[in-house]
Write a structure and sequence with these properties.
With 123 residues, the chain is mostly beta strands. It has no helices and 11 strands.
Length: 123
């Protein structure tokens, strides 16, 4: 199983970016997909997460600016980030929680992280 993120980069304050994360492998289902971020010298924090059924929640700091969505058929989660602020600068990590995948004779469950993508917002 592998999670591959894309879409990070450098943007001016007030701009937008869209992050994507695609999970690949012998995946059966993924209960929750989400985005976390970690700024230098700070702990990793939840940005937003979404269930298979579409129930989403997000950090107060991004409410009204960031939107999380997912395509279950593609095992892909997106994060649309608008009105970006310098304090949004961080490495953004994709997470797949309760990911079920096929193994010989059955299935296994695990939690997986992407490699991270840098988002830098200049003032």
């Amino acid at each position: 199983v592998q999670l591959v993120e894309s879409g990070g980069g450098l943007v001016q304050a007030g701009g937008s970016l869209r992050l994507s994360c695609a999970a690949s492998g012998s995946i059966i289902s993924i209960n929750v997909m989400g985005w976390y971020r970690q700024a230098p010298g700070k702990q990793r924090e939840l940005v937003a997460r979404i269930t298979t059924g579409g129930t989403a929640n997000s950090a107060d700091s991004v409410k009204g600016r960031f939107t999380i969505s997912r395509d279950n058929a593609k095992n892909t989660v997106y994060l649309q980030m608008n009105s970006l602020k310098p304090e949004d600068t961080a490495v953004y990590y994709c997470n797949a929680e309760d990911l079920y995948y096929r193994v010989p004779g059955g299935r296994q469950r695990g939690n997986y992280w992407g490699q991270g993508t840098q988002v830098t917002v200049s003032s």
